[in-house]
């Protein structure tokens, strides 16, 4: 009788006999996450590393939140004196490149210092819909553009485990900046096997020395859908 049941024979009880507490264990259809990258004051007009029109995407991002099974916000979160700040290097100016043990690193103006107003989310960004807020860039010696791995490309942030344990397979990415943190996050996610889409209309770029076209190429090569 057990074998007949597995092959799709008669069900042992009509559905009305399934206790409700068992119904509660059914897997929810949790597959699609919206990943909102670094929509913080310092990346918006008036901020320390302002991205042109960085704040113009906020309302569109809020509107997308209702369509996702999960919403994750990322937050660039550097200690004062972070190694990615030009001010931490005696002979360097912002936007110059230096060599770090893990490779080339653009040096930035001081930005997104832990606990500062610049590190806070844009005041209009709807934080109430966020299931998860993941911080990155807190290691003083390593920058972290990607929401998945630090710039050494091997230290994980934990976001992969969070998404996988929730059964999420499809990611829509939006935010700032398209050519740095969105790009690195999208490429890493695609390499990890997630189905990744970037909404270009809900991103803005820094565009430093061709970084925007390089980012578009890197994302396309990695199999990210640019929409
Ligand atoms: C970012 C530069 C430095 C970003 C963060 O969010 O794209 N860019 N830190
Ligand atoms: Zn940063």
Physical arrangement of strands within the biggest beta sheet: 5-2-1-6-7-8
How is the main sheet built?
6 strands, parallel
Averaged pLDDT = 91
Structure class: alpha/beta
Sum this structure up briefly:
This protein has 6 helices and 8 strands; from the N terminus they run ααβαββββαβαβαβ. The protein is α/β, with parallel strands linked by helices and 227 residues long.
Essential attributes:
227 residues, alpha/beta, 6 helices, 20% strand, globular, binds zinc ion
Report what the structure shows.
- The longest helix has 14 residues, at 178-191.
- This protein has a six-stranded parallel beta sheet.
- It has helices at residues 2-6, 20-23, 58-65, 159-165, 178-191, 211-221, and strands spanning 32-37, 70-76, 97-100, 103-106, 132-136, 170-176, 195-204, 225-226.
- By secondary structure, it is α/β, with parallel strands linked by helices.
- Helix 3 (58-65) links the parallel strand 1 and strand 2.
- The protein has six helices and eight strands; from the N terminus they run ααβαββββαβαβαβ.
- Helix 5 runs parallel beside helix 6.
- The chain binds pyrazine-2-carboxylic acid and zinc ion.
- Zinc ion binds next to loops.
List the helices and strands and how they pair.
Layout: H1 2-6, H2 20-23, E1 32-37, H3 58-65, E2 70-76, E3 97-100, E4 103-106, E5 132-136, H4 159-165, E6 170-176, H5 178-191, E7 195-204, H6 211-221, E8 225-226
Parallel strand pairs: 1-2, 1-6, 2-5, 6-7, 7-8
Antiparallel strand pairs: 3-4
The structure holds pyrazine-2-carboxylic acid (VGL) and zinc ion.
Pyrazine-2-carboxylic acid is lined by residues 38, 43, 76, 108, 145, 176-177, 180-181.
């Amino acid at each position: 009788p057990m074998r007949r049941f597995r092959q799709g024979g008669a069900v042992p009880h009509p559905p009305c006999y399934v206790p409700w507490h068992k119904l509660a264990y059914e897997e929810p259809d949790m597959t699609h996450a919206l990943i909102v990258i670094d929509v913080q004051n310092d990346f918006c007009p008036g901020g320390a590393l302002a991205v042109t029109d960085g704040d113009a995407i906020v309302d569109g991002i809020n509107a997308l939140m209702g369509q996702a099974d999960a919403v994750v916000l990322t937050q660039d979160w550097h200690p004062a004196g972070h190694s990615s700040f030009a001010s931490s290097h005696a002979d360097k100016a912002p936007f110059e490149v230096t060599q770090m043990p893990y490779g080339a690193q653009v040096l930035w103006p001081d930005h997104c210092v832990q606990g500062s107003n610049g590190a806070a989310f844009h005041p209009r960004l709807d934080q109430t819909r966020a299931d998860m807020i993941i911080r990155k860039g807190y290691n003083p010696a390593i920058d972290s553009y990607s929401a998945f791995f630090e710039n050494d490309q091997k230290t994980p942030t934990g976001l992969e485990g969070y998404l996988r344990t929730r059964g999420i397979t499809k990611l829509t990415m939006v935010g700032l900046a398209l050519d740095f943190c969105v790009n690195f996050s999208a490429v890493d996610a695609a390499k990890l096997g997630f189905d990744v889409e970037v909404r270009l209309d809900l991103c803005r770029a820094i565009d430093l020395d061709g970084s925007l076209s390089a980012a578009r190429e890197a994302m396309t090569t990695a199999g990210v859908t640019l929409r």
